[in-house]
Amino acid sequence: MVEESIKSGKLKARLPRGLADRGPAEIAATRNLVERIRSVFERYGFEALETPAIEYSDALGKFLPDQDRPNEGVFSFKDDDEQWLSLRYDLTAPLARHVAENYRNLVLPYRSYRCGYVFRNEKPGPGRFRQFMQFDADTVGSASMAADAEMCMLAADTMEALGIPRGSYIVRVNNRKVLDGLLETVGLTGPEKEAQRLAVLRAMDKYDRLGLAGVRQLLGDGRKDESGDFTRGAGLPEADIRTITSIFEPVRDVDDRIAQIDLRLRESKVGQEGREEIATVSRLVRAAGYDSDRILIDPSVVRGLEYYTGPVYEVELTFEINDDKGRPVRFGSVGGGGRYDGLVARFTGQPVPATGFSIGVSRLAAALAHLGKIETGDARGPVVVTVFDRGRLADYQRMVQSLRGAGIRAELYLGNPKNIGNQLKYADRRKSPCVVIQGDDERARGEVTIKDLALGAELAGGAQERADYLKLQDEAQIAVKEAELVQAVRAVLERHGRR
RNA sequence: GCAGCUGUAGCUCAGUUGGUUAGAGCGCCUGACUGUGGAUCAGGAGGUCGGUGGUUCGAGUCCACCCAGCUGUACCA
After folding, report:
1. Nucleotide minimizing C1' to CA distance for residue A466
2. Distance CA A166, CA A357 (A)
3. ipTM > 0.90 for the complex
4. How far apart are CA A443 and CA A139, in angstroms?
């Protein structure tokens, strides 16, 4: 690369893949999204917390001690004292670090939220980036299922606050203890079965995408996808496959679902604990008015394989979206979370129960943009004061300052002011509401011309001849005394509605 | 990582069975038309055809390898 740039004499401007620049429209949309999420989270009583983007790799739990380096999925580098540092890949591990470090000073249960970019060094895809924004809420120091129930309700409320109608999203809830009970029931216990257990959980997690048939293949010998690639299965015997997939069988309602789990996991102590927890969460959310059209018990939810210990939840958008070529796009999960009772204990040695929920802001923003729930672009630009006579820059800049002083976004034309046409073209592209012009004629009368660009475009729309066009343009502008500049500009802005 | 597909101008794409100087539309720049966005008209810039080798008298076109992108899949805290 360096060689290449020497050869050609210039550097190729390029963005690393999986990363994106953001323009004004996207920034505004994200800010708007974040503010709405924040207002819901604050209404639930969570308080703000910010932690840095960089942590010690071991604090993130992604250090591979046997290889003396961090996991490849995280961006890592060495500090000058040879200690490994990493960019955070979620907001939960840093929170656990913060809580452990400040345990004595925090009011428990500690309820906090945070928002920020996280980084993952993995293959990007549609709606998947190597830097993306998450918005998290966590309750640390409470083992109560009420804390988990609340996370589910928070998720549902947040979706609706973002304008996603009920029925277009679903919060699906499961419990890791139920899954553990299921594994126990088919005899997958003990350390030597670890790999198989993971394979089973991964297979179950794909139920929504691959359906029953796909999951059965992955639990058994394996599955070949449409590109011809083969995925090895968990290698379970048919009887065990049937036992596991029986948990997916459709049921009429929540009570049946819980009864079904009870029946399947009759022999498993941990499974029964899980059933108990699910039933409690379910009872709490229902009492608060959240029915299964919003919060649904779904035994196929798995989430991460690393640290969840109890309830797990996932928010999914359920409407179909097409991309710009008309093909359907699946956005999948836009948020999720669960209980992680062991995470803080890694630092303190004392078990600290905790549960949290995380929203993928970037993915959600992409989905909402497709839905048309986010205004993209069309933000008004500033008022442009044109330079008619380049010897009088000081006068024009004074006009700009008087507009700015009145709280109006305004700027002096800073390009080459060789003619007025270019300056109007510039203002047009900036989506300026109006321009200010003062040539010799106006100057002699102590006036300025204010041209309403939107009105001009509207009036001149049908003109064919140049002469007609110019005449119509003339009607879109007014001359006012210099002293009335601010007032007249404000009148134009009000005519078009301020933004 | 694995598999399939695709790489030609800023963008979207043509480019014949291998044949002279690689094109179009849009966009961009300059100018004309009164001191005014648009339209119109007249000009213009911009490409090592992803890269490197090979086959051939001759390669955008065929072959090999590499790189990048897309899609699926695996992994995913």
Report:
1. B33
2. 19
3. no
4. 67
| 3-class DSSP assignment, residue A341 | coil
Place of tokens 């509605």: A497
- Is any atom of strand B within 7 angstroms of residue A120's beta carbon? yes
By DSSP bridging, strand A328-329 and strand A383-385 are unpaired
Q: Is the CB of A312 under 7 A from strand B?
A: no
Q: What is the pTM of this model?
A: 0.88
Q: Is A232 (CB) below 7 Å from strand B?
A: no
Asked if strand B contacts A88 at the CB level, meaning under 7 A, the answer is no
pLDDT digits (tens, 9 = 90+) for A111-123: 999 999 999 988 8
Nucleotide B12 C1' to residue A323 CA (A): 17
Kindly list the distances between the CA atom of residue A465 and the CA atoms of A462, A469, A471, in Å, as whole numbers in the listed order. Answer: 9, 6, 10
Indicate the pairing of strand A110-119 with strand A222-224: unpaired
Q: A126 CA to B12 C1', in Å?
A: 21
Nucleotide closest in space to A458 (CA vs C1'): B38
CB of A332 lies under 7 Å from some atom of strand B: no
Give the three-state DSSP class for A287: helix
pLDDT tens for each residue of A297-332:
999 899 877 789 999 999 998 877 665 555 556 667
Could you give the CA distance from residue A321 to residue A332 in angstroms, rounded to a whole number?
A: 11
Could you identify the residue written with the tokens 């009607």?
Answer: A475
CA of A413 to C1' of B44 (A): 26
Per-residue pLDDT of A357-406, as tens digits, reads 999 998 888 778 767 666 655 578 999 999 999 899 999 999 999 999 99
Å separating the CA of residue A194 from the C1' of nucleotide B1: 22
